[in-house]
Amino acid sequence: MAAKVPNDGxxxxxxxxxxxxSLSKSAAEKLKSHRKKIPSVSxxxxxxxxxxxxxxxxxxTRVESKARKHQKEAKEIIEACLPHANTSTRIGITGxxxxxxxxxxxxxxxxxxxxGHKVAVLAVDPSSSLSGGSILGDKTRMEELVKDPNAxxxxxxxxxxxxxxxxxxxxxxxxxxxxxxxxxxIETVGVGQSETAVHSxxxxxxxxxxxxxxxxxxxxxRGIMEMxxxxxxxKADGENEKxxxxxxxxxxxxxxxxxxxxxxxxxxxxxxxxxxHKGIDKVQELIKDYVSxxxxxxxxxxxxxxxxxxxxLQTIESQLKRDFYDHSKVKAExxxxxxxxxxxxxxxxxAAEFLLTYSTKKK
Length: 363
Ligand SMILES: Nc1nc2c(ncn2[C@@H]2O[C@H](COP(=O)(O)OP(=O)(O)O)[C@@H](O)[C@H]2O)c(=O)[nH]1
Ligand SMILES: [Mg+2]
Hints:
Bound molecules: guanosine-5'-diphosphate, magnesium ion
Largest sheet: 7 strands, parallel
Number of strands: 7
Shape: globular
Helix content: 40-55%
Number of domains: 3
Strand order of the largest sheet: 3-2-4-1-5-6-7
CATH class of the largest domain: Alpha Beta
Structural class: alpha/beta
Low-confidence stretches: 1-6
Distance between the termini: 68 Å
């Protein structure tokens, strides 16, 4: 084989062994990245507004980056995109692993793009820093959508706190909207408080469920029923169809126990089979009905305003907290106060007050 290579003399000196794959690959990538010019903020903004997926991806990477330089750039990009944002229907989808979220999003997303829409799929999954992004693995289940020029799928941002992940996702939504995506689907597996986070950044919240053995209402996290604008029982196919219909009735009954929402929308229950593409059209119609109702009565905008207010306060709180604990003097004094506390020489309240005065002093 080596004889076919024209300059095999040089090769045979190495005993005919190919250079290690990983080495040559990383070396090639290094070379490539040196040659490729890093796009400027204005280039990225221009790309995003033109709907260029590569520019969008690169901008999101800046949003997700911890480097100060990138964070500054991200801020500029977001600012430039903001006037073009706020244009989409934001849909939150939650449900336990295996319920069929990815399969559902694949079919639902396809329907939307076929109707001329542009769909972005994002995820809030605080656990994904361990698994490397839940959607990443799911991309195989979204085979069609991944290839669709009118769909954009982004694995969840990793982060050490839900607040951090949620912020990045919210900023990513702005960029996606500026890039022309008129439907943003945000998926969560419901770890910790992630449902609440997704609920507070979406217009419509959909809970995917499975028909169980008569205990459908058990094991459902408190508050989720209240958040849901629709409960959709998936896998309503084959032998499961009857149980799904039964579950639908039960959920419907349960939903009626909740007070009417500010939106005046009555949460609905549906059944579907993402696998057999059945009932997805009904879900699509339902969301359309919801949007036209809430846009008509002003609730749609009101809720977004409320969400903005929530995130503003949330951001202040987390920033204050971080500044406090990052304060060099606080760090040292905290240890001392904890020691005093253990010796019964102070009270938690006195110690807290003492420490809080430090955070207002200069570092
Ligand atoms: N029978 C049936 N299986 C489904 C349906 N939707 C999804 N599945 C299957 O359920 C499994 C989990 O689906 P997936 O979309 O990955 O769930 P996720 O973890 O919620 O994203 C896969 O094996 C799917 O093929 C459905 O409507 N009917
Ligand atoms: Mg999935």
